[in-house]
Every structure is written in C-alpha cells, then in structure tokens.
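Notebook, p. 212. Picked up where the previous page left off. The plan for this session was modest: take the two constructs that came back from the sequencing core last week, fold each one, and keep the raw output in the notebook itself so nobody has to go hunting through shared drives later. Recording the first one now, exactly as returned: residue sequence, then the structure token string.
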Amino acid sequence: MQPLIDNARTFGQRPEKFAGLAQGQAPEVLFITCADSRVVPALITGARPGQLFELRTAGNIVPPYASEHPTGEAATIEYAVEVLGVQHIVVCGHSHCGASRAGARRRPERRTRRA
C-alpha cells in the first residue's frame, strides 16, 4: 500500500506530464469493463491519460435504463455521449470473471400458479 500512497503524494509534482489534462478532456472512446483489478483499460489498449472515458462495474453489468430510477451507469453513459461526445463505445469482458460466473449460476425463481 505504501508505494501507492507515495505515488499519489508526488502525482501533483509532475506538472509537465499532466498540464494539458488540466484543460479538460475529449476522449473518443467510452470503455465499459469489469472492475476486476486485473483489467487495466489503458494497459490493454495502450491509451494515454485522457483518451478513454471509463465505466467499470462488477462483471461490466449495466442495468436497463429506467428514468424513474436513475443509475450511476446511466449517468456515466449519458455524460460520455451527450457532454463529451465520445464516438465509440467498447464493452470489454475478460476470462474467469467472478461476477459473470456468479450471475450465470443464479437461477430464476420458479413461480407456479395453483388453481
């Protein structure tokens, strides 16, 4: 944990690397993927800071849209498309996903009608 903390503390001391990012963002891609710590979108794609707008959820699950029950996922997608103007949406899954495996194991309840 300490190396992560140390890097976070020195992050702002490297303005030459990130000065342009302070002006705003204009990513072309919304990258929807799993929150699994082994999935690193920038590493997978070779993207630099500011090139991907990311939405990460367990199992890259995005619930159906319902205006009466807004979700963070819907807000992220809407912001990416309407405000940032992303041109592409990528949904990236991965092997051995625990969330997908758990979802596949769940069985819907059987409801039977009795007369």
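Okay, moving on. Second construct, recorded in the same format:
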Amino acid sequence: MARRIHQNAGIPEKEAAELLEGILELLKATLKNGESIAIVGFGTFMVRRKGPRPGRNPRTGEELTISARRVVSFRPSQVFKEHVNSPGQAGESGPVEKGLPNQVRTHPRIDEVSKGLT
C-alpha cells in the first residue's frame, strides 16, 4: 500500500510508509479505546463485545466456555459495495488485484497528519 501511495501521491516511498504506519497506528489506538471509525465512502469499523459462550474443542469434542472478548467488525458503505460489485471490475473479468484502487483520492487532512509524522 505504501508503494501505491508513493506512486499516486508523488511523495517519497519512505514518507508514504511512515504516513501509512501512522494512520494504521491511529486506527488501532482508536479501536482499542472502543471507539468506532467511519470512513466516508468506505465503511465503518466498530468494536463489539461478545459475552462468554459455550463451545467445543473440534479435535476432542470436549465442551468448554469461550471467554468474553472484544472483536472488530467492519460494515462496508453502500458506495463501497457498489464499487466492488460494479460491472467491469476485477473479479468479473479476472482475478482480484491486491492493493488500492488505481487512483488514490487525497484529503486535505492527510497533509496535516503527514506533517506530524516527520
């Protein structure tokens, strides 16, 4: 992803990697605090609490209790779903390519965030 940011935004690859790492760290910290993250046109990441529940060891069949925990879930936006399922996209005509879309849209806030990382 950092390489794609470097190519599309025209910033040095090292800066792109630092920017990406900073954004990911911010996302992880926000989710760890139990806050949701909504990215317009992409979707929402949220933390849900799961209570303890009965389970079974698939190898031995032994019954056990699965402990309570927090899990991250993602709900894609309608725009994102439409993009993924639109005609002519990868998947209909061939294998899905990994990485970002060919064009990365920049947001004015990215410049502010990247300044804080250097």
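Notes on construct two before I forget. The two ends are 19 Å apart (CA to CA).
Flagging for discussion at group meeting.
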